[in-house]
């Protein structure tokens, strides 16, 4: 016979005899039901019945009054059946049972639970045969199985260790093919860019723009004077751009013709985490069509890096530009988090990921 039992919550409860339970004023479900009470949390102890089923005991200081809809119609005599263990369980509708968290074995099995306790209630089929309900709280959760083979427990991505390894090898092979492809791009028509902003929201403004090409040539590297924001204390700590520094810088409006001219000469525009940069730079264009054309040209270096990392280093999860550069063993040029250093870093990450990207 078991001396203690580990519950799904992680709590371990002792096995005690019925008389010990009575000494401690512990309540069985039977008694709780009669008193219209519900346990709060786990049972305090258990006893094993002769048929192998379990009776739980509940601490009387850890019960609350059950809501009236869970009471068994007080004016009517509650129908009950007595189990072999001597426990009396009430008849209730399937709906009421579900409200109490009681389900049939089949339903619990669908939910991936195994029943170890005795039934706590029942209902009748049309032919008067019994359907038992069991408490989900005391049922045991089965380990989830691999969605691919169904033979082993899950490890990652809903797959078992073996299936995960097979899937990883497949994804890695596909990814390596994608990265190893010859893209025949011209270095001067592949642009890398990065913006520093006053903040992360849509109403925030651009403080600097850096653009380089596939030859590491700096095409633009300028501070930008915001027209609405006067200070940006939070992001200033990161990029170091102060209001004084941008006081005499051109505004985005002033820079727009030049940026449009540069972008027009690009086949591809790459940034690390391009969605943020795009969501701010797109406003240099007035029409949705122009914005969409820009969007089509953009590529995201961080998405490509995350893919590479998940295929080759599935245990690593951090994927900032600094993480990418460290993993790919690339040295910083200049000060990290300035837009020019990030742009140069992004270009290097891109070329490491796509060694055959350019025509030469
Ligand atoms: Zn499997």
Summarize the structure.
Helices cover 34% and strands 20% of the residues.
Would you give an account of this structure?
The protein is an alpha+beta fold. It has three domains: about 5-140, no CATH class; about 145-180, no CATH class; about 180-355, Nucleotidyltransferase, domain 5, CATH 3.30.420.10. The protein is about 35% helix and about 20% strand. It contains 13 helices and 18 strands. A five-stranded mixed sheet has the order 16-15-14-17-18, with helices on both faces. The chain starts with a strand and ends in a 7-residue tail after the last helix. It binds zinc ion. Zinc ion (ZN) binds next to helix 5.
Layout of helices and strands:
Blueprint: E1 4-6, E2 12-14, H1 18-23, H2 29-34, E3 37-39, E4 45-48, E5 54-57, E6 63-65, E7 80-82, E8 88-90, H3 94-100, E9 102-103, H4 105-110, E10 113-114, E11 121-124, E12 130-135, E13 140-141, H5 161-180, E14 190-197, E15 206-213, E16 218-223, H6 233-239, H7 243-246, H8 252-264, E17 268-271, H9 274-281, H10 288-297, E18 298-300, H11 301-312, H12 321-327, H13 339-353
Parallel strand pairs: 14-17, 17-18
Antiparallel strand pairs: 1-2, 3-6, 4-5, 7-8, 9-12, 10-13, 11-12, 14-15, 15-16
Helix pairs in contact: 5-11, 11-13
The protein binds zinc ion.
